[in-house]
Backbone:
């Protein structure tokens, strides 16, 4: 099954041109693992990049061919850690996530939810695990929220998101995602700004949510 | 949408002398045959570790990739360093080049983009792994399209860019060349952010339709 919800054209372009943060790129790489449609789209956008490079004026290169040829026999650097097998208990994690999971351990977050913070760069990217049938607190955000579903699914504003789907919420969206009733939901979650929870309960929560 | 004055567009063309102004298409038709002449060289590098083939690819692409890197904000020394890294990667990974998936130019573009992120931003750009057991495979909807028609796609893309307006060409070039967020493009072109976004989107959609991707 291929995903039903996809990144916006802006996200696809920014990923293809390399202007997204590492965290947002991780969300994209995750979605692309599940989505042949968006992989083809990124390939097309990269083809535009290739065509433009062909068309660029030239700049004199200082490195001589001899210098470069002399470097060809340098030993190849060790392969990247993405080639390691997934950690036990993380078999649902696609390969782009593996390098971030070496020391990963679930920690309590909000009632019914646990999290693994992944990186601080480019917003707050974390893995979230929500118990079956549990709702997140009603919230909105300063900045964009991107969610890629890895296991199970959730419903939000009348839409159902399943594995591989990318859910996108913006500044103004006040929403309350709820995990599907039959299975826990694990997703990769990024807010590029801060989470805001309205109301008195929200004020209390806001103090405890790490940004 | 705001009407676009000539003066405003002048502001887009920071490098108008290099780009030869507005009077002609910004994407002159590529010379050469339908076949990618560099694909054969990549095969020689992968199969025979051919240094003459490597030299030829370097001679053609080196000066262009350096321009790309400098437009992305690299200084001269940085651009040289990243370029060397790109060329070494080409040498070591030539066997992963698949002419059915992309042209050599596109393959090198992606390597240069990633190496620049590694070197300059000192961050990673995560990518999907084609060997991932969780990978959802190509479907019949697009599988044949992607794998068997990549070359025809490239040809169609070359034709499609000819049909872009100079304004659309300029916006797409800015999005690709200058490591610019949409908001800095908006600042430079004095257009509202939403307008920049929708114009880039429209230009790309135009390409897609011209390529037959929306059929």
Residues:
């Amino acid at each position: 099954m291929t995903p039903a919800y996809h990144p916006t054209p802006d996200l696809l372009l920014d990923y293809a041109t390399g202007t997204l943060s590492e965290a947002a790129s991780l969300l994209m790489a995750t979605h692309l693992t599940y989505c042949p449609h968006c992989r083809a789209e990124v390939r097309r956008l990269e083809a535009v990049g290739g065509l433009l490079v062909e068309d660029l004026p030239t700049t004199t290169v200082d490195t001589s061919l001899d210098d470069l040829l002399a470097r060809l026999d340098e030993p190849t650097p060790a392969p990247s850690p993405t080639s390691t097998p997934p950690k036990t208990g993380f078999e649902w994690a696609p390969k782009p996530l593996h390098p971030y999971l070496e020391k990963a351990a679930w920690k309590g977050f909000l009632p019914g939810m646990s999290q693994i913070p992944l990186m601080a760069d480019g917003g707050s990217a974390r893995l979230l695990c929500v118990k079956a049938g549990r709702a997140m607190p009603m919230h909105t955000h300063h900045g964009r929220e991107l969610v890629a579903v890895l296991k199970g699914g959730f419903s939000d504003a009348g839409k159902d998101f399943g594995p591989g789907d990318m859910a996108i919420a913006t500044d103004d969206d006040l929403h309350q995602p709820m995990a599907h009733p039959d299975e826990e939901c694990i997703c990769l979650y990024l807010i590029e700004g801060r989470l805001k929870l309205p109301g008195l309960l929200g004020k209390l929560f806001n103090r405890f949510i790490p940004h | 949408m705001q009407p676009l004055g000539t003066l405003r567009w002048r502001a887009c063309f920071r490098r108008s002398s290099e780009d030869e102004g507005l009077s002609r298409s910004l994407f002159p038709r590529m010379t050469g045959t339908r076949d990618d002449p560099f694909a054969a060289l990549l095969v020689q590098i992968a199969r025979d570790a051919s240094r003459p083939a490597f030299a030829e690819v370097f001679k053609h692409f080196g000066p262009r990739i350096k321009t790309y890197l400098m437009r992305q904000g690299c200084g001269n020394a940085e651009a040289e360093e990243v370029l060397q890294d790109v060329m070494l990667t080409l040498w070591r990974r030539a066997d992963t080049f698949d002419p059915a998936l992309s042209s050599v130019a596109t393959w090198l573009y992606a390597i240069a983009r990633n190496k620049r992120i590694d070197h300059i931003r000192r961050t990673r750009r995560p990518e999907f792994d084609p060997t991932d057991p969780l990978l959802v495979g190509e479907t019949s909807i697009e599988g044949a399209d992607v794998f068997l028609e990549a070359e025809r796609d490239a040809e169609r893309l070359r034709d499609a860019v000819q049909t872009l307006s100079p304004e659309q060409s300029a916006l797409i070039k800015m999005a690709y060349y200058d490591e610019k967020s949409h908001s800095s493009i908006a600042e430079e072109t004095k257009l509202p952010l939403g307008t920049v976004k929708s114009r880039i989107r429209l230009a790309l959609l135009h390409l897609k339709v011209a390529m037959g991707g929306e059929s």
